[in-house]
Amino acid sequence: MKLIAIVGTNASFSYNRKLLWYMKKHFVAEVEIEIVEIAELPLFTEDSLDLPKKILEIAEAIEDSEGLIISTPEYNHGITAALKSLLEWLSWGAIQPLVNTPVMIVGTSLGKQGTVFAQENLRQILSSPGLEAFVLPANQFLLGHAADAFDTSGNLIDRQTISWLEHCFRNFCLYAKSLKPLRKLMETDADTGASEHE
User: What does the alpha-carbon distance between residue 64 and residue 56 come to, in Å, rounded to a whole number?
Assistant: First the structure.
């Protein structure tokens, strides 16, 4: 199984980046995770007639994967402007790669509540027209006190935290596999509908 993982910030240092790299290493025997950065992406604007090259590359990577992980920090009870801009690009163009795509949301922050508000914000955005993703229900991985959560090698320290992440991640893999036949059916129906109107 190949998954795409988006670092939900353009900051040069991010505990959410650390979390995704930990997941990539920790689950290497089970899945292939490709980590995608959004630091150099252009800000969304409707004035652009075509998707920028870097946005198109991300869209194609998502389309070629079996699921998407987004690790979001929390800024002012919401997701970052950089992540929101990316999602606007991905819902605006002719290519809308998140439609019917399984998505797992994770996040970590310095506070004790983790990224509870940002994750709810992101779930709401991902249900909007043009995105329409299949977000994994429940299984919320909310990691607080990020500065104390990792060792010097970037590994999570707390055994209970690791166990909960494993539980959520394996449920996501099962969720993505279960949705695969439905996604193929929906793609076939969409293609059939398009051909009938050509």
Answer: 12
Q: What are phi and psi of 102, to 5 degrees?
A: -65, 130
Q: What is the mean pLDDT of the chain?
A: 93
- The answer to whether 110 and 18 have CB atoms below 8 angstroms apart is no
Strand, helix or coil for residue 112: coil
Report which secondary-structure segment, H or E, holds 23. helix 15-26
φ, ψ of residue 165 to 5 degrees: the values are -60, -45
By the 8 A CB rule, do 89 and 55 touch? yes
Please tell me the CATH code under which domain 2-196 is placed: 3.40.50.360
pTM of the model: 0.93
Cβ 87 vs Cβ 78: under 8 Å: no
